[in-house]
């Protein structure tokens, strides 16, 4: 109910593969060198060069998601619960005092496009756990595969 209701997950994670195959901005932490260097990955913009596409990434399918950590375009998030939290509370993973000026500027820029998205309002830790338990059901071998 949370996934389809207040969590608004199905706005983007919908259809047979739990993805709309569209590009959206979710301010996941960046990690590593990044496609654009210095830890920055501008996402879809690197393909289209349309400024509106900066920091957009394709909605990933969610089947077998418990087996596909680490999460997001950068693989910066190890826990499934944190991948859910990153949608509505990206600042939880940021420690501005320990970030470089470039990293802070990048985060600030990515919060803009994310604020245009129909992302879920804050969910409690219990609600996040409930959604993670639902996602764990989307497992081919356990629930959907031919070998029961
Ligand atoms: C506005 C569209 C949108 C909504 C709403 C949304 N997501 Fe996402 N989700 C994305 C995009 C885009 C990514 C990938 C972002 C990236 O790679 O930086 C993603 C990534 C994820 C991931 C990581 C999967 C992986 O393989 O890396 C999980 C898990 C996830 N979403 C679950 C959820 C849940 C649960 C909700 C509801 C609480 C939700 N999403 C709401 C667009 C959305």
Blueprint (SSEs and pairs):
Elements: E1 23-24, H1 45-48, E2 57-58, H2 80-88, H3 101-115, H4 125-136, H5 140-144
Antiparallel strand pairs: 1-2
The structure holds heme C.
Q: How much strand? A: under 5%
Order of helices and strands: EHEHHHH
Number of strands: 2
**Most strands sheet:** 2 strands, antiparallel
Total of domains: 1
Report what the structure shows.
The chain is mainly α and 148 residues long. The protein has one domain (9-144): Cytochrome c-like domain (Cytochrome Bc1 Complex, Chain D, domain 2). It is built from 5 helices and 2 strands, in the order E-H-E-H-H-H-H. It has helices at residues 45-48, 80-88, 101-115, 125-136, 140-144, and strands spanning 23-24, 57-58. It has a two-stranded antiparallel ribbon. Helix 2 crosses helix 4 (125-136). The chain is globular. The model has no long low-confidence stretch (mean pLDDT 91). The structure holds heme C (HEC). The site of heme C has 26 residues, from helix 2.
């Amino acid at each position: 109910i949370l996934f389809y209701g207040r969590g608004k997950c199905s706005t983007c994670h919908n259809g047979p593969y739990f993805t709309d195959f569209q590009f959206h901005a979710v301010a996941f932490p960046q990690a590593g060198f990044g496609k654009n260097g210095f830890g920055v990955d501008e996402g879809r913009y690197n393909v289209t060069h349309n400024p509106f596409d900066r920091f957009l990434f394709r909605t990933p399918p969610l089947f077998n998601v418990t087996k596909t950590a680490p999460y997001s375009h950068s693989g910066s998030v190890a826990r499934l619960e944190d991948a859910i939290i990153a949608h509505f509370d990206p600042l939880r993973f940021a420690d501005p005092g320990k970030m470089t000026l470039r990293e802070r500027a990048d985060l600030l820029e990515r919060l803009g496009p994310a604020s245009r998205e129909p992302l879920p309002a804050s969910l409690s830790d219990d609600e996040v756990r409930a959604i993670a338990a639902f996602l764990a059901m989307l497992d081919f071998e356990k629930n959907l595969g031919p070998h029961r």
